[in-house]
Design a protein that fits this description.
Blueprint lengths: L4 E7 L4 E4 L2 H5 L10 E2 L4 H6 L2 H15 L4 E8 L6 E12 L5 E10 L1 H19 L7 E6 L4 E7 L14 H11 L1
Antiparallel strand pairs: 1-2, 1-6, 2-3, 4-5, 5-6, 7-8
Length: 180
């Protein structure tokens, strides 16, 4: 999988963001301006954010304005699209030798796919929890993108047991197959 990152610089005195690459301008902030400079920050960003992200975006810029590093996940609609996207914005404050802020740089990472996978995993876990435990041999939650076992519960006396030290999905599956 490729990671879509973009860079930006924030000027808290002018309340503006300057995109340092085309990816940033074309994605999230293409909704606000076609130029690489976005004014009226944070209001212009809060305006395009989905309602569930607006408070977090305001808090993010309040932290950054006070000189603190911060990050936020912002849900928004792509320009000319009804599809929701999610970006993780991270701001890093560069300081001088006395600790005073010199400049604020940021990275925007497209995490839409990751968030959709997390939502799918959560729905699957909720569906699994609704099943009657009596009919199950065992149940577990696995993060397949990281090949990790999140949790595992034996629910019946005839349950297949995971051997000590097995913590990946692949190893768990192999242990199950050996016990069948």
């Amino acid at each position: 999988k490729s990671v879509r990152l973009s860079e930006w610089q924030y000027d808290p005195n002018k309340h503006s963001i300057t995109a340092l690459d085309d990816e940033f301008t074309d994605s999230l902030f293409g909704r606000i301006s076609s130029s690489p400079v976005i004014d009226k920050v944070p209001d212009s960003i809060v305006e395009i954010a989905e309602p569930q992200s607006r408070n977090a975006v305001s808090e993010f810029f309040a932290k950054v304005d006070s000189g603190c590093d911060a990050s936020v996940e912002i849900w928004y609609r792509q320009k000319d699209s009804s599809e929701l996207s999610c970006r993780k914005l991270t701001a890093i404050v560069e300081r001088d030798e006395h600790g005073y802020p010199l400049s604020i740089y940021g990275i925007a990472q497209d995490i839409t796919e990751q968030k959709r996978e997390e939502e799918r995993y959560q729905r699957e876990l909720e569906n699994m929890e609704q099943l009657e435990d009596v009919n199950l041999i065992s149940k577990g939650h696995h993060n397949l993108s990281q090949n990790k076992i999140i949790n595992y519960i034996c629910t019946a006396s005839s349950a297949l047991h995971i051997p000590e030290g097995v913590n990946t999905y692949d190893a768990c599956l192999a242990a199950y197959l050996e016990q069948l």
